Amino acid sequence: MTFTQDFNQSFDRVATRSSKWTLVEEALGIKPDPDMLPMWVADMDFKAPDFLTDAIRDVANAGDLGYFAHLDSFRDAIQWWMKTRHNWGIETNWITPTASLGNAIAFAIQTWTAPGEGVAFMTPVYHEFSLKVLKNGRTPTQLPLAVTNGHFALDIDAWEACLTGNERMFLLCSPHNPGGRVWTREELQSIVAFCARHDLLLVSDEVHHDLIMPGFAHHPTAVVAPEALDRMIIMTSASKTFSIAGTRLGCVIIPDDTLRKEFQTTVRNADLAPNLFGVVLTRAAYSPQGAAWVDALNAYLWENAKAFTDAVNDIKGLTAFHLEGTYLAWVDFSNTGMETSEIWRRVTETAKIAPSPGTPFGTGGALGLRFNLGTQRSVVIEATERLALAFSDLQ
Predict the structure, then answer these.
(1) Across the chain, what does the average pLDDT equal?
(2) Measuring CA to CA, which residue among 80, 84, 78, 111 is closest to residue 260?
(3) pTM score, whole prediction
(4) What is each CA distance from 341 to 36, 210, 287, 371, 394, in whole angstroms?
């Protein structure tokens, strides 16, 4: 099955009250400007495909928005997707829905760590890791990544010295946000071994698992290290792949019976139930139509990534990391010789682009910025042209 969609077609996301387009000032402190290109939060600018909007219409036409039950077909769809797209055979009873992956991360921290205990994660990384750890009264332990050949790489020998002995959990971002790395089987196995040596529970956030560029393959952590399933939690969602984060639904897959029961107790104690529209849209997304749509999406994102990376790497002082997965491009500005504040001023005031600032991503992020390429190619090209002008004095 193939799917055709004009990803170049834009629509008015201000009118739909999109956070990405309407909260730039509130989130980033950037003055409103009609010429600003919002390229920050991980949310795509493509219209939802028909098979998703049709699923919503079916609910509306039925006229029943009350309490609901019977999640068998929802879990079946997730099971089918993991097997078909990721060659991972799971049992439907391993699945626990949550209100987004951020909610799932917070629940994991609450379930398996105590206040004051440490949670380790690689940096730079998705800033919500650190925020969730701090909001729950735990202590973050940052494990810096190395930079090799235009991408982030593991530096496990250096990590050994970073641990305090107080850590109980390792949060993994796979594929990696903001670096766009798709970790290899060998890298994942070395992370699992690191966790085993230090008795760390491994929580793997794999929300970008479907957004993979040609020549790369996502490996579910559970598949590459089946011997460690008794200390592993996998988190996924259709939210990033299909840009349905507004439906607030995450999927936590826990093969181990004891860990799963512990997590489900936390969920029940929070009186949490899945969102009707999240369930309906996940079921519609994890389908043959959804698979064909993702194939078309990834082909478009790959062309965006090539256009962005090639153009940015032609600008003296800027290095765009090679994108292997996600639609989030990391640009290193360290060779400009500029301070963080000057880089931010040039990008936001001169180029009029609103990316994600690098400092919140942790150690190693201060001189980088994250750019969202999940948008029309004309926007991507316009952004590179603006960056070239903003840093033209370095040429």
Answers:
(1) 96
(2) 111
(3) 0.96
(4) 18, 35, 46, 17, 17
